[in-house]
Amino acid sequence: MPITETHEIHQRRAGRNIGVALTLLAFVAIVFFLTMSKIRNGGSMEAFDHSARPSITEEEGSE
Length: 63
What we know:
By secondary structure, the chain is mostly helical. Helix content is 54%, strand content 0%. The protein contains 1 helix and no strands. The mean pLDDT is 80.
């Protein structure tokens, strides 16, 4: 016996699923555009990668 009728609860779930999908899409878009703007502005791209960074190390003998 196949289920052919859509119950009212299925319509409510579909509405919630669309809302969650739109919220997730908005979050992904915000993260994407913030990342692109940071890359395009070319700010300080140095990150903590367990290596010496010449820009923050002091030269020997300078006091």
